Amino acid sequence: MIDLLRLRTMPPAVPPGFLDRPRLDERLTAATSRPLTVLCAGPGHGKTLTLSSWSKHSCGANFAWLSLDDSDNDPQAFWFDLLGALTINGAIPLDSPLRDLIPAVRFDTHALRLITAGLAALAESMVLVLDDFHLVTDSRVHRSFEQLLDQQPPQLHIVLATRADPSLRLLSLGGGLPGN
């Protein structure tokens, strides 16, 4: 199961000839000073490749990637995959209690507190990209993710790449790119 997850934690390769977008890279990097960035555009507009290119050339932070899919419409699977992506990408230190946390069938407030506390203990800033967030439609997953956003540690910056505005409470978070 970890091998399948490992495939979803690698940003796609940027093809030769991909158009560099330095101004967009600068805006994405500047946005990491905020808790959340939402990159929303229709299919084929280059969200995934732009973020992949940025992560390799301009991000300037520890970086984790998770390509979401339909299986993440279950809270247990979503949090297992999210923690797995952070672990696989080296964001979670070997001595962190997050490495031993396995989200229970009934993901609850206690589990979220453990995750938030573990993320707050990270020594370095971290950027987490959740690609294809539009595929996550389950309201339980959205509610638990909103709770993380409400208690998000300052060293964690989340980037959502999505085809549609997520149905999350985002107004109070100041998400988006600077200048928008």
Structure description:
There is one protein chain. With 180 residues, this protein is an alpha/beta fold. The protein has one domain (2-9, 22-163): Rossmann fold (3-Layer(aba) Sandwich), CATH 3.40.50.300. Helices cover 37% and strands 13% of the residues. A four-stranded parallel sheet has the order 1-4-3-2, with helices on both faces. α6 (139-150) links the parallel β3 and β4. Mean pLDDT is 85; it is low at 173-180.
Topology:
Layout: H1 2-8, H2 22-31, E1 36-40, H3 47-57, E2 62-67, H4 75-88, H5 109-120, E3 126-131, H6 139-150, E4 156-162
Parallel strand pairs: 1-4, 2-3, 3-4
Helix pairs in contact: 1-4
Give me the Rg, rounded.
15 Å
Q: What integer is the average pLDDT?
A: 85
How many helices?
Answer: 6
| DSSP summary, beta strand count | 4
Report strand %: 5-15%
Taken in chain order, the helices and strands follow as HHEHEHHEHE
Q: What is the 3D shape? A: globular
Low-confidence stretches: 173-180
Order of strands, widest sheet = 1-4-3-2
Give the biggest beta sheet: 4 strands, parallel
Overall CATH class = Alpha Beta
Q: Give the assembly state of these chains.
A: single chain
- For the record, the count of structural domains works out to 1
Helicity range of the residues?
25-40%
**CATH architecture label:** 3-Layer(aba) Sandwich
